[in-house]
Amino acid sequence: MPLEAGLLEILACPACHAPIKEQEAELICTGQDCGLAYPVRDGIPVLLVDEARRPA
Ligand SMILES: [Zn+2]
């Protein structure tokens, strides 16, 4: 299920406030020193640091 158009433009990483990009059913922070990956559940972005996956 694709995210609503324009939604990504208003989303920002809650940890560092960098823009977020959609990638393989996750939302990836574009912050150079952050890079957290947030899950999307039932089409709803879960922008919670506690739910985010740390970059490898
Ligand atoms: Zn971030």
TrEMBL record:
Pfam families per record: Trm112p
Family from the record: Belongs to the UPF0434 family.
Name recorded for this polypeptide: UPF0434 protein GCM10010515_47610
Organism encoding this protein: Streptomyces fructofermentans
